[in-house]
Structure formats: structure tokens, C-alpha cells
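Please check both lines for our workbook:

___
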Amino acid sequence: MSTIVCDIGPIIHLYEARCLHLLKQTGEIFLPHRVQLEVQTAIHLDKQWPEWLNVVKLSPKEQTEAGSWQASRRLHAGEAEAIFLSKQKNANWFLTDDPATRLLVSVLGTEIRGSLGVVLWNASKRHINRKETEEALDGLRQSSLWLSENIYKEARQALDIIFKNS
């Protein structure tokens, strides 16, 4: 099972698109406590906090180290702590929808995915069918996630490849 660290964006966007459950199928999900607090401020999960979203409290020393990432790289506190946690956990994936964070994490050598990548990965693994994938893509398009028309079209075209023999 993959180890995945997530910042706030994918949780919010997948929740808004009514497909947060897809995140659960990608692997073991970890996020720092600060990200949990940011999520709880931004959205109100219909039920209690999902048990499969593993929240990690960083020690004061770890928070200070993450804070140095924040100050030197102009990151938000949650992003900095998520990057720190990703390094600590030796994560297979880092989930973010923030372009600046994606750039920094790519330099660190961790595979990066975003909300759109989570949906397409689930489709490629046949966790969801084409209709469910299309609904998830449309949900993301209507969420607070910014998707250019070209990216949205490319994602829809990817479905033709993913579901070619279906």
C-alpha cells in the first residue's frame, strides 16, 4: 500500500466534488494536524472526521523545522508541515493542487498528484467506471479547484484511453 501525504487542496476539492472517498482508495493517507485544522475551518465534513485520514501531530521541534520551510519557500504553514511529514514518512505520493508546492515537492523527488490525478488514477485502476469518472471530473470542474479548459479536455480524452476496451 502506498504512503501518501496530503495538503489541504485535494481534501477540499474532492469533498466539494462529492468524491472524497476516492482518496481513500489510493493508499494510506497522512496529513499534519495543521492541515486537519485548515480543512475543518474551510469545510464542514457531513459526518465526523474520516478515520482513514490519518492525522499526525508534529512535535514542537518538527513544527519549527517545518516553519523554516515555510519562511524560506513562501509556503503556507499547512503546506510546509505536509512537506516535512512527506519527507519524514518517505511518502510515495504527495497530494497538492497548489502549483508552487508542486514545483518544490518535485525538486525533492516525491511523486506528485492532485485532485484530478486522484480521479484518473482511480479510473485507471477500475475502482470507478467511466460514468462515475465523468461525474467526478464534472464535480471537480464545479468545485473551487481551478481547471483550465485545456486540462479538463485532456482529462476527458484520457478517459477514452483508460476505458478503451470497456
Observations:
- The CA atoms of residues 84 and 97 lie 17 Å apart.
- The first strand starts at residue 3 and ends at 6.
- The longest helix spans residues 60-73.
